[in-house]
Design brief:
Blueprint lengths: L10 E5 L5 E8 L2 E7 L2 E7 L4 E8 L3 E2 L3 H8 L11 E6 L3 E4 L2 E10 L2 E11 L3 E2 L5 E12 L18 E15 L5
Antiparallel strand pairs: 1-4, 1-13, 2-3, 2-13, 3-6, 4-5, 5-7, 7-9, 8-9, 9-10, 10-12, 11-12, 12-13
């Protein structure tokens, strides 16, 4: 018997964006800087053999609880939203490693640069929600080197060390819904 299975019953699973988040965190100065994206979209497609995931977020929806800093992050020093308005993640073959664990090789596009990434996490077993739909939770995380995507801004400390780390952790807490009417 094959030990890897598709992560959910066959069908098209749409992101419940109200109950989903995509966050990021990076070491900055004497702590960790955190933010998230308010506008995310994703679709999980499962057939009998495999599952694929496509997700996007609008750079303009970045939220770090400070308007001027959000504007700076959208500018050319960071995400360059005017030229690259969207971040994109795609994975072509998502499989369950066992006991709800997933490991996914995918591609992440930031600032027009597409790089391979490995994403790990968990998936919940499907549940029926109160509205007649099936629902799963997919929690994923990865660590990337932001400079591999052309996000190179930094501000050296008096010691000469950079104030902003290159490694950024991305955390996605996603809920997907499949209509109970889908056959």
């Amino acid at each position: 018997m094959n030990s890897t299975l598709t992560i959910a019953p066959a069908g098209t699973w749409n992101l419940d964006s109200v109950h989903s988040r995509v966050d990021f965190e990076v070491a900055y100065l004497a702590g960790t800087f955190k933010g998230h994206f308010n506008e995310i979209a994703a679709e999980l497609t499962v057939d009998d053999e495999r599952a694929t995931l496509e997700g996007t977020t609008k750079v303009a929806s970045i939220d770090v609880n400070e308007e001027n800093l959000s504007g700076h992050l959208q500018g050319p020093d960071f995400f360059d939203a005017e030229r690259h308005p969207e971040l994109r993640f795609t994975a072509e073959d998502i499989r369950l490693d066992g006991d709800g664990q997933v490991s996914v090789n995918g591609e992440l596009t930031i600032r027009g640069a597409t790089r391979p990434v490995t994403v790990t996490g968990t998936v919940t077993a499907p549940i029926a929600d109160p509205y007649g739909n099936e629902r799963i939770g997919l929690n994923l995380t990865t660590k990337i080197d932001r400079t591999a995507f052309g996000v190179n801004w930094n501000n050296p400390l008096p010691s000469g060390e950079p104030s902003l780390a290159n490694d950024v952790t991305i955390l996605a807490e996603l809920q997907f819904v499949k209509s109970g009417e889908e056959s």
